[in-house]
Structure formats: C-alpha cells, structure tokens
C-alpha cells in the first residue's frame, strides 16, 4: 500500500485527517531513531522500500539491501542510494561512505511527502522567465526546495 498516492489512500479508505499523516510520520521517525541508536543506516531509503499498514499506521522496512550495518570491527557499507532522495552533500560520495546525515535527509523528504499528499519537496516548475532545472536530482543538488 503506497500511502503517498491519493488513489491508494482512497482505495484503502484511509482518513484524510492530517493528524493521521502526522501519526504515520511519527512512526516512521521512531523506526529510524531506533535504527540509528543501534548504529545502522538505511542509505537506500525510498518509499518503495517501506510497507504501510493502514489499520494501524505502522510501517515496515521491506528492502534492506541498501543498509549500512554497524559491526564490532567496522561497518558493512551500503552499495546504492536513490537519486531522488540523496542529500546535496552526498552527491560526490560513494554509497558505502554515507551515514546518518544521508539517512536523515531521505527520511525528511519522505516525511514531507507524507504530510504533503505525496508531493516531493523538490519537485515543481519554475515561474515563467526563470531557468531552473526540472529534474529532482538537480533541484536537490542546487537547493531548489519547492
């Protein structure tokens, strides 16, 4: 179930009450608080890697190949990161070198999408007469928050 798509929300009979989306965002933040407390990071964080349970507002992580796992003698770094969720400071770095700041950026983007009916905070178009990039990756890199 994709909470970010309005059609999915309607099909599942999910309340349009804003407080419900705040609850889901809170639950998502709680998951990552615990993950970070254990020293792990989900570098390849995107909505497709999360499963939403409408009846409870709970969320499960369903794809873990993009994790950076803390070990007693080092770290198993992630192998990939999604362009639409990569932090500006992470663009020129390899996925295995990324950590909690990258994870927090992607989490913030997904929480904003959750609160804003699925709209990516860096999506959008420029006003007439302005020449700004239209792709999300470049808009993130240039700090063009919509």
Number of structurally distinct domains = 1
Whole-number average pLDDT? 86
According to DSSP, the number of beta strands is 5
Distance, first to last CA: 26 Å
Structural class: alpha+beta
Query: How much β-strand is present in the residues?
Result: 5-15%
**Strands across the major sheet, in which order?**
1-4-5
Biggest sheet features:
3 strands, antiparallel
How many distinct helices?
Answer: 4
CATH topology: Transferase(Phosphotransferase), domain 1
Q: Percentage of helical residues?
A: 25-40%
Order of secondary-structure elements: HHEEEEEHH
Q: What is the CATH-assigned architecture? A: Orthogonal Bundle
Gross morphology: flat
CATH superfamily: Transferase(Phosphotransferase) domain 1
CATH class: Mainly Alpha
**Poorly predicted runs:** none
What value does the Rg take, in angstroms? 16 Å
